[in-house]
Amino acid sequence: MRKSAEFQNTYTKGVKKTSRSFLVFVLPNTLGYSRFGLTTPRKLGKAHERNRIKRRVREILRTSRTGLQRGVDIVVNPKRAALNRKFDELRAELMGLLGAER
């Protein structure tokens, strides 16, 4: 997902799921494949911290694509707690929110 309107549509019409480290919005689409969006606001931390969490979330989504449901738009908003968590903990938490088998 790239356009602001796509993010806003997912925020307003999607299902919101929360955990200690993430806020996730999921909305079914009619495309037949899933799209992912990731936001890291400045209040999350300095640029190097935001970049680190973005790399980690993208890697989790990249390696877990086969276990995720198809035909949904997913927006992931990390929380500050995600900065201090181990990668395996983040993976388990995010996959639990998305209902993936991993």
Architecture overview:
There is one protein chain. The chain has about 100 residues and is an alpha+beta fold. The protein has a single domain, classed as Ribosomal Protein S5, domain 2 (2-Layer Sandwich). Helix content is about 40%, strand content about 20%. It has three helices and four strands. The chain has helices at about 5-15, 45-65, 85-100, and strands at about 15-20, 20-30, 35-40, 70-80. The protein has a four-stranded mixed β-sheet, with helices on both faces. β1 and β2 form a beta hairpin. The longest helix is centred in the middle third of the chain and has 17 residues, at about 45-65. The model has no long low-confidence stretch (mean pLDDT about 95).
Give the gist of this structure.
The protein is α+β, with helices and mostly antiparallel strands and 102 residues long. The protein has 3 helices and 4 strands.
Please give the structural blueprint.
Layout: H1 4-13, E1 15-18, E2 22-28, E3 35-38, H2 47-63, E4 72-78, H3 87-98
Parallel strand pairs: 3-4
Antiparallel strand pairs: 1-2, 2-4
CATH topology: Ribosomal Protein S5, domain 2
What's the CATH class label?
A: Alpha Beta
The average pLDDT value, as a whole number, equals 93
Stretches where pLDDT is under 50 for at least 5 consecutive residues are none
Task: Outline the biggest β-sheet.
Answer: 4 strands, mixed
